[in-house]
Each structure stands twice: as structure tokens, then as C-alpha cells.
Specification:
Elements lengths: L6 H18 L3 H7 L4 H9 L18 H14 L1 H21 L2 H13 L4 E4 L15 E4 L3 E12 L6 E7 L9 E7 L5 E6 L10 E12 L3 E2 L5 H37 L1 E2 L2 E2 L4 H30 L4 H26 L10 H11 L6 H13 L2
Parallel strand pairs: 1-4
Antiparallel strand pairs: 2-3, 3-7, 4-5, 5-8, 6-7, 9-10
Helix pairs in contact: 1-4, 4-5, 4-7, 4-8, 5-6, 5-7, 7-8, 7-9, 7-10, 8-9, 9-10, 9-11
The chain binds acetoacetyl-coenzyme A (CAA).
The site of acetoacetyl-coenzyme A (CAA) has 24 residues, from α5, α7 and α11.
Length: 380
Amino acid sequence: MDFKLSEEHIMIRNAARNFAQNELKPGVIERDENQQFPTKQVKQMGQLGFLGMMVDPKYGGSGLDAVSYVIAMEEISKVDASASVVMSVNNSLVCWGLETYGTEEQKQKYLVPLAKGDIIGAFCLSEPEAGSDATSQKTTAIEKEDHYLLNGTKNWITNGNTASVYIVIAQTDKEKGHKGINAFIVEKEMEGFIVGPKENKLGIRGSDTHSLMFTNVKVPKENRIGDDGFGFKFAMKTLAGGRIGIASQALGIASGAYELALKYSKERKSFGKEISKHQAIAFKLADMATQIEAARHLCMKAAWDKDQGNNYDLSSAMAKLFAAEMAMQVTIEAVQIHGGYGFVKEYHVERLMRDAKITQIYEGTSEIQKIVISRSVLGK
Ligand code: CAA
């Protein structure tokens, strides 16, 4: 067993770290405050190859492994989780599904510009009444001669307005339950597709989250992904990879907050010495460092499983569950170590604490991860 990063992995970490520090850090507080999408920075992420990291270079991607993806996600999330969620969704929920299950035509038309970062994608599963219970899709896609007629509403869609291409999960036959669900590629310009208002969120405020409305949208039959009825399994398989991305995001949010708290604890003095020299603070830092390291190992294990071609449903759910819960605890402690300064925006940790919360919710709540894990543990 070798825990050492390869030279290529170290290069990727340095590239992501430099990009995050030089391009994302300036203005991150203002973007959060003003709910401003990091348009320029997302374009740069595309140019640097961060938006199609694992896609084969013949389809415009960087051809890297999932371990590289975890490394880059951690570095970018340390500084700006609003930018890293764009990256995670585009890589895991959009590019991966298209590359793995799309037709050659779908790949040429959609995957190539998505992997290059020329356009951004979104993944549309959640509905007003179907977030965790993903089989209960109310959005319908009724089969007609050469198209499907799409009707319904999707909620909390990341990249909701900035995306050009949307993977939409819809029910095609209610009688068939999860086997009557399909995934479709929907273009923003299709008639009857309306982007709803932007959500005013607690965290990841620089990312754009919207509801979407579809009214008699004609989706060509060639835009269905996979065989008829494959949509639910498509969504589950895609989300397993997405959970590696969000676990890494949680890891990055936590390690960003920890690094700030560590630095602050060596500068700030109270009762005649640096606060890091008080055991109350030193023990907090010890716990934070240990929790972060454990989450990093789980993220790497899930990525390694993916790279080896192993099933990663379980390891990705474990990584996501642990990293998200850990990120919430660690960021709360980072604010506590900063005292009053932690409560104001200039010190970054209050933003990281707000950003951490979403990692316990999206791409399956912590409770959903426990369903996936317990079913595996119990052998169901
Ligand atoms: N891979 C392949 N197939 C899978 C699978 C997987 N990982 N998980 C389930 N399946 C299959 C099952 O084998 C079963 O098929 P068969 O009947 O042929 O055996 C079928 O799918 C149905 O499975 P279940 O009976 O287990 O389905 P369920 O209704 O009990 O749901 C669940 C399981 C785990 C709770 C699932 O609904 C789930 O993951 N829900 C959460 C959805 C989610 O993550 N939503 C977040 C939205 S996306 C988002 O947040 C993106 C963003 O913007 C950042």
C-alpha cells in the first residue's frame, strides 16, 4: 500500500492551489455577499482542464484519474465552495454520465464542449416532492413519434441559469415504477423551458441555484440516455460519483477552515501566550486535523475504487457521510477558535461554516448515505 502522491498528483495539487489562491480568493467574500456567480473563474477552470478532469482527451477532457479529481476539488473548495460545486456537478453529474452511457453523437455534440468548459451542464433530479425519494418523479416525459413531451418542475438545480445543457430525469411510465424513469439531454433553448427565480441561500451563495419549469418541451428521441427505463439506475450510478466530488468538497471546506484556525491560533495571544499554547485550543486543533485526515482517506479510497473499476457505491457514500458531518463540526470549531473575529466576514471561516451545511444535504442527505451504507452492511 502506497500513500504517497505521484509527481503528477502533486503537480495537479499545486496547479489547483495556485489557481484557488490567486484567482478565486480575491473577491470571494464579495461574491458570497452579492450572490455573484464566478463567471470569469469558471471560464479559467475550463481552460485549466478542471471542468472535464476525468474525460478522455478525445472528447475534450484532461484524461486524469479520480484521485486527481479529489485533490483538485479539495484545493478549490478550501477557498471557494461556490466555484467547486460548479466543478463537481459538471465533472461528476454531467460529463461522467454522458461519457459512460451517451451515444457517440451525444458525446460529440454535448460532452466535448462540456468537458472543455465551453459550456456548463446541470443535473436535474430533485423536485418539489422528490428530493430523497428519487423514484417518485412527477416530471413526465410522454413518448410521441420522434420526441418525448416533457412537463414538470425541478428544484434546487445547481448551475440552474448558467448551464446550457441539462440532464433531466423524468417518468415515462408510472406503472413501471423505477423502471419507468428515463434521463434526457435538454437544451436551454428548447421551447417551453423556463428558468425560475434564483434561490437566496445560506451558503455556496456564489453558485446559482434555480427551479426549472418544463411545459410541453419537445425533447428529440435521440436525446434519451441509455435504453428505455435506464434513467433511475443512470441517476444512482451518476450520484455515486457525484458523492466523491461532494465528499472532496466537504474535505476542502474543512481543511480550509482548519488552516485558517491553525494560523490564527499561532498569532492571537490571550492570557500572555499564543492561544495555540492553551490546551483547550491545541486539543481542538488535534481533533480537527485527525478528522480531516480520516475524511481524506475515505475520499481517496472511494476515488481509488473508481479508478480500479471496483464498485464504489459504498465507499462513496461513506466518504460523503463522514466528510460532510466532519466539515460541519470542523468549521464550527474554526469559528470558535477565531472567537469574535470568526463571526465576521473578513476572516472567511463563517462563510466556510455556512458552506459546509449544504454538503450534509445535496447529492443525498447524510440520512440517505446511511440508507445506502446500512443496506450494504446488512446485505440487502
Ligand atoms: N447503481 C445501480 N443501480 C442502483 C443503484 C446504484 N448505485 N442504487 C439503486 N439501484 C437500483 C436498484 O438495484 C434497483 O433496481 P432493481 O429493482 O432492478 O434491483 C433500483 O435501482 C431501485 O433501487 P432501490 O429500491 O434501492 O430504490 P429506492 O427508491 O429505495 O431509493 C435511494 C434508493 C438510495 C434512497 C435513492 O433514492 C437515493 O439515492 N436518493 C437520493 C437522491 C439524491 O441524491 N438526490 C440529490 C439530488 S442531486 C443533487 O443534489 C445535485 C446538485 O445539484 C449538487
